[in-house]
Amino acid sequence: MSHYATYEKFFSSEQAEPILEILNAHEIPYEFAALNKPVDPLLSGGGPAYEYEVKIPAKQFEMANRILREKIQINLNEIDQNPAQRQQVLYLR
Q1: What is the pLDDT of residues 57-85, one digit of tens each?
Q2: Distances (CA, A) of 39 to 15, 45, 51
Q3: What pLDDT does residue 20 have?
Q4: Domain 4-92 adopts which CATH fold?
Q5: Buried/exposed code over 38-63 (b: 16+ C-beta within 10 A; e: otherwise)
Q6: What is the mean pLDDT of the chain?
Q7: CB of 39 within 8 A of CB of 75?
Q8: What string of DSSP letters covers 34-78?
Q9: How far apart are CA 72 and CA 67, in angstroms?
Q10: How confident is the model at residue 49 (pLDDT cuts 50, 70, 90)?
């Protein structure tokens, strides 16, 4: 039985690279894998089309969250000014 749980999902492997680098640097074990797509998203009602997921030991979620919060930098110049479409653009230092 695996004690790993899904920590984060990504649209591409490139999007996951900064997180994986940080997990490696802090010796947090992880599993990185492509998600199975058993049903076409159009048939299941859509939703985000995540392609990959990172799993880490559930007992290390708090530590991973703390480390990642310390590394996040928000670039306010790249936040969409339209409130209906506002999203934060995050960068890892």
Answers
A1: 999 999 999 998 888 766 556 655 555 44
A2: 24, 10, 13
A3: 95
A4: Alpha-Beta Plaits (3.30.70)
A5: eeeeeeeeeeeebebbbbbbeebeee
A6: 79
A7: no
A8: EPP--S-TTTTT------EEEEEEGGGHHHHHHHHHHHEEE-GGG
A9: 9
A10: confident
Report pTM.
0.67
> Distances in Å between the alpha carbon of 50 and those of 10, 11, 22?
5, 5, 21
Q: Which of 50, 47, 20, 45 is nearest to 35 (CA)?
A: 50
Q: How, if at all, do strands 52-57 and 90-92 pair?
A: unpaired
CA–CA dist 6, 42 (Å, integer): 24
Q: Identity (one letter) of the amino acid at 25?
A: A
Q: Which residue type is seen at 38?
A: P
Summarize pLDDT for 33-45 with one digit per residue, the tens: 998 876 665 666 6
